[in-house]
Design brief:
Blueprint: H1 3-30, H2 40-49, H3 57-70, H4 75-98, H5 108-136, H6 145-173, H7 179-200, H8 215-224, H9 228-247, H10 258-306, E1 310-315, E2 320-323, H11 325-331, H12 344-348, E3 375-380, E4 386-395, E5 400-409, H13 411-462, H14 469-495, E6 504-507, H15 508-514, H16 516-522, E7 527-532, E8 539-542, H17 544-563, E9 569-580, H18 582-586, E10 597-606, H19 613-616, H20 634-644, E11 648-654, E12 658-666, E13 690-694, H21 698-710, E14 714-718, H22 721-731, E15 737-741, H23 749-758, E16 765-769, E17 784-787, H24 792-805
Parallel strand pairs: 7-9, 13-14, 13-15, 15-16, 16-17
Antiparallel strand pairs: 1-2, 1-5, 3-4, 4-5, 6-8, 9-10, 10-12, 11-12
């Protein structure tokens, strides 16, 4: 057994036995018929048992046996009494812990549990067993059973009631004692003792003996203040003095025998202690509940103030009961200006500007807002902010007790969602334009290959001697139609960004001035053409020819938009330099990857019919026109030019209010550089050459071969790059020039060219393609480039030029 358990039980046995023996001895000196005064051993044992985690019944049994034997009782009676007293403590502890007894006496329930379970049931059963053993061993007559059992029970019960509460409370509150508590105890406890001394030790016939109620106001004062220590120790003092007076036949209860006086005193003391401790517990419980309510209110207030949402609480009558600072900030009202008697509608009205749609706000008493009573609205404030207001019922124990409004500022969120939506649409549109560009470039390339064959055969027809004038005219018509189709393919290539831009410093103002007369002729006389051009040069890196075409297309479209309206209006061309930030670039077309910075700007603005959102998403599609069926590639070509210039474009338009296009080009600090003199055209060299034609299209390959053969050269034809490499492996010394198609399905032209150079073949190469020469890398070792479809004269000049140079060069 643990040493602590042994020591505790041994000390308890000695204390219990000494207290019991002293109590019995004292009772014998007071009166022969008085069995005992107060069995404080039960109180000491129960107080110890409730505070230790182990059993103390062995100490209680030993102490009870010692006390009983000291009175001269038999061993059998002492053993039975020891068992009864030990069982009393075991049963009391079991019942109290099972019932959830709190040894701090925080509530009135704890006092009632101690009185009912320990002082009542446990003490009564223990007294029954002890008195039964006393009667059976001849220690008392059977006729005295009830009287002895009642006195035995009351002495044990009073012992517990007097000792347990002060002991447990003193130990629990010892660490909480403050100067204020000790000061109150130092005043109240002596006052209680003096008032009890005056009444309970006074002569029974004196007036003072009738003043037994004197301690009660002081006990109640301690109870009202919630000081359970003053209440319990004060009750203990009153009880001790009352018992002392009863034993000395003094005070208000000194009537009859000592046992009768003592019985009355016990009843008085029990009522006093129980009432005082219960009153104290009730006060403490109420105070604790109030503190908890206040703490909950503070926590709720802290939560309300901590949230970023505006919270408004109203009762069932529509009166505002609580509102946090976030809500007041939303409606721009300070707390000191808060109308205490204002209704909720007065607050909600401030969430909207003074407009007619204010009346649709759900009111606080409206119970028909959906099946759950919830309401939600997005409100626009007068200062431009957007807020979400949500209203839910505040449900009480039995019915709806009001409503709670939560309001949050969603201006930034709405703006972010709108920005994300706009960016998403722009990305989709950019992907669409990119896809159309790839498609347009591919279609233009394939058509150029077909047109090369058509034009080639038509030119071959013209060379036939037997062709009459009508046939010659038909062949020339085929060539002209093919050239027109080639021009359309060129526009498709421009839209796809596959054209070559000869970039050089261009003064945008000077370019617009030079075009003034040309633009004035192109627009209707009912359109007022205005130019706002700065005197200082605005330089941009651009291909001036393509730039003029872009400006002309935009001015022409603007003029037509004006004529779609009343018939008269204005077209403004403005040139300026400005900083284009992320916001401008984010809503621009063809601006992917462009950095922030200064750009040269050309604006074309009109006050015509404008466009709606649906038109704006399609104006850059090939062959789309807002004025009816597709009429060409104007704006789509503009976009292609800007791609090749590393520029961007924005559109600002609204149906009925006109349109403004802004074109941004990389700004240049350089001035215009005069064009270099054009080198004289190279004349063909004399003598036939052997030329290898490599093209996967048989029609193109055959027409090119016949054109070259017509000039007296020898031609070898192959259909792809692998065949060309195989032929060169055997005959590369015979080949003077290679006409190489750029795009082929198996091995393309660039791959074939790279393999040729790796093998050491230094034969000049003339690249041909349906794309522009932009598709040819700058470092490709080629002697020249010719774009399909081409005339025989163009092919003759390029072939002659390459043969005259005799070595591979660059585009």
């Amino acid at each position: 057994m643990n040493l602590r358990i042994l020591v505790t039980n041994a000390v308890l046995a000695l204390v219990y036995g000494a207290a019991g023996a002293a109590t019995l001895a004292f009772a014998q000196t007071v009166g022969p018929n008085l069995s005992t005064v107060l069995w404080i051993g039960s109180g000491i044992a129960l107080a110890v048992a409730l505070q230790v985690p182990f059993a103390v019944w062995p100490g209680v049994a030993a102490g009870a046996a010692i006390a009983t034997l000291s009175d001269g009782s038999s061993l059998v009676h002492a053993s039975a009494t020891a068992a009864a007293n030990a069982g009393e403590i075991v049963l009391a502890v079991f019942l109290l812990r099972k019932a959830g007894f709190n040894r701090h006496f925080g509530t009135a329930r704890d006092v009632l549990l101690l009185v009912g379970l320990a002082c009542g049931i446990s003490a009564a059963l223990a007294a029954l067993l002890s008195v039964t053993s006393l009667i059976l061993t001849g220690g008392a007559p059977t006729s005295a059973f009830v009287r002895i059992w009642l006195m035995w029970w009351l002495t044990h019960g009073m012992g517990m009631l007097l000792v347990v509460p002060p002991t447990l409370i003193a130990r629990a509150r010892f660490g909480d004692l403050t100067r204020a508590t000790l000061g109150e105890a130092a005043i109240l406890l002596p006052a209680i003792a003096v008032s009890a001394w005056i009444s309970f030790l006074a002569p029974p016939t004196s007036l003072l003996a009738e003043l037994f109620f004197l301690p009660f106001p002081l006990l109640l004062l301690g109870a009202v203040r919630g000081d359970v220590m003053v209440a319990t120790f004060g009750g203990l003092i009153v009880t001790v003095l009352a018992i002392a007076g009863a034993l000395m036949l003094r005070g208000p209860f000194s009537t009859g025998t000592s046992n009768e006086a003592l019985f009355l005193t016990w009843a008085f003391a029990a009522v006093t202690i129980i009432a005082t401790v219960i009153a104290t517990a009730v006060v403490r419980e109420r105070t604790s509940a109030q503190q908890e309510v206040q703490s909950s209110e503070r926590r709720l207030r802290a939560v309300l103030e901590a949230t970023s949402e505006g919270i408004l609480v109203a009762d069932e009558a529509g009166r505002v009961t609580d509102v946090n600072s976030s809500f007041l900030s939303l409606i721009d009202v300070s707390e000191r200006d808060l109308p205490r008697d204002a209704g909720v509608q007065a607050f909600l009205d401030r969430l909207r500007p003074d407009t007619d749609d204010r009346a649709d706000l759900p009111r606080v008493l409206d119970r028909d807002i959906g099946p759950t009573g919830k309401a939600w609205q997005e409100l626009n404030l007068a200062d431009g902010r957007i807020v979400e207001a949500e209203s839910v019922p505040l449900v009480g124990p039995t019915e709806q007790a009001g409503r709670v409004w939560s309001v949050r500022d969603v201006t930034q969120r709405v703006a972010s969602e709108e920005e994300r939506r706009r960016l998403h649409e722009q990305i989709l549109h950019s992907q669409k334009l990119e896809g159309l560009g790839v498609l347009a470039g591919g279609v233009a390339h394939d058509f150029n290959n077909i047109l090369a064959g058509i034009m080639g055969y038509a030119e071959l027809l013209l060379t036939q001697s037997g062709l009459d004038s009508e046939g010659r005219a038909d062949a020339e018509g085929i060539i002209k139609a093919s050239q027109h189709a080639a021009g359309l393919c060129g526009q498709l290539l421009t839209y796809a960004g596959k054209t070559t831009a000869m970039l050089a410093p261009v003064d945008l103002s000077e370019c617009a001035r030079d075009m003034r007369q040309f633009m004035a002729i192109s627009v209707s006389k009912n359109v007022d053409l205005q130019l706002e051009l700065p005197d200082d040069p605005i330089m941009a890196m651009a291909d001036e020819v393509q730039l003029r075409q872009v400006i002309f297309n935009l001015v022409t479209n603007a003029s037509e938009a004006v004529l779609e309206g009343p018939g008269a209006g204005r077209v403004l061309v403005r040139v300026q330099s400005r900083f284009c930030g992320r916001e401008w670039l984010a809503r621009a077309y063809a601006a992917d990857g462009l950095p922030e910075g200064k750009y040269a700007i050309v604006e074309v603005e009109d006050d015509g019919v404008g466009m709606d959102a649906a038109d704006v998403t399609q104006i850059f599609d090939p062959f789309y026109s807002s004025k009816g069926p597709g009429r060409g590639l104007g704006l789509s070509a503009v976009l292609g030019v800007l791609r090749s210039h590393q520029g961007a474009l924005t559109v600002e338009t609204e149906s009925g209010l006109g349109t403004r296009f802004q074109i941004a080009l990389p700004q240049s600090e350089q001035r215009h550089v005069p064009a270099e003199a054009v080198a004289p055209r190279t004349t063909p060299t004399e003598g036939p050459a052997t030329i290898l034609v490599v093209d996967d299209e048989p029609v193109v390959r055959q027409t090119v071969a016949r054109m070259i053969q017509r000039d007296g050269h020898n031609v070898v034809q192959v259909g792809d790059g692998d065949e060309a490499l195989a032929l060169l492996a055997e005959r590369h010394h015979e080949i003077d020039l290679i006409v190489l198609d750029l795009t082929m399905p198996q091995r393309d032209g660039l791959s074939t060219l790279a393999e040729m150079r790796q093998r050491g073949y230094r034969i000049p190469v003339l690249l041909a393609s349906g794309y522009s020469n932009e598709a040819v890398p700058q470092d490709a070792a080629v002697a020249g480039f010719i774009q399909k479809p081409f005339r025989s004269v163009d092919l003759r000049e390029r072939v002659a030029a390459v043969l005259s140079e005799g070595a591979p060069g660059a585009v």
